[in-house]
Design brief:
163 residues, mainly alpha, 5 helices
């Protein structure tokens, strides 16, 4: 006979809360080095036979970069967005948004004004009560992102809306 020891209502509630948190933040730690990417996130691979994924940074005009932001920062931000920063899990690999998070490729900003410094602040503090989407964003997406990594991800998000 197997018992149910340790699996009462509190355990079930804890498990449910953990599952909701994982779904809202996109999962666990997949490394923050930026070298690990989401499945099929390589911008040079064909997504389906006969079609090729387009690098969103290909049309980037460096003149649009905010003061202090470099092309290398934007590229690092792209790698973090699609890898260890786990941003893609809610915003999608194409950054066009999903059920939990808004589109970052258009010029409509919902929770901030879309300026570089406000995007940095949003990533640092998170979005506890999103205006339109049900998925709250934890500070730094729940990941141990450094300030430099937050600035890089913010640079990428900033440029996505200006391409």
């Amino acid at each position: 006979m197997t018992g149910n020891k340790g699996h009462g209502p509190l355990c079930h509630a804890t498990l449910a809360a953990a599952l909701i948190a994982v779904a809202a933040c996109g999962g666990g730690d997949s490394g923050l080095g930026g070298s690990e990417e989401a499945p099929d996130a390589d911008m040079n691979q064909a997504s389906t036979p006969g079609t090729e994924a387009v690098d969103p940074l290909a049309g980037m005009d460096p003149a649009l970069l905010p003061e202090g932001v470099t092309v290398a920062m934007v590229e690092q931000g792209r790698d973090l967005f699609n890898g260890g920063g786990i941003c893609y899990t809610c915003h999608t690999i194409e950054a066009t948004g999903g059920p939990l998070a808004p589109d970052l490729t258009d010029d409509t900003w919902i929770n901030v004004d879309g300026e570089y410094l406000s995007i940095i602040e949003l990533v640092k503090t998170g979005v506890s009560q999103p205006i339109e989407h049900p998925g709250a964003m934890l500070p730094r997406a729940g990941m141990p992102l450094t300030d430099e990594q937050v600035e890089a991800v913010a640079a990428y998000a900033y440029m996505l809306s200006r391409l």
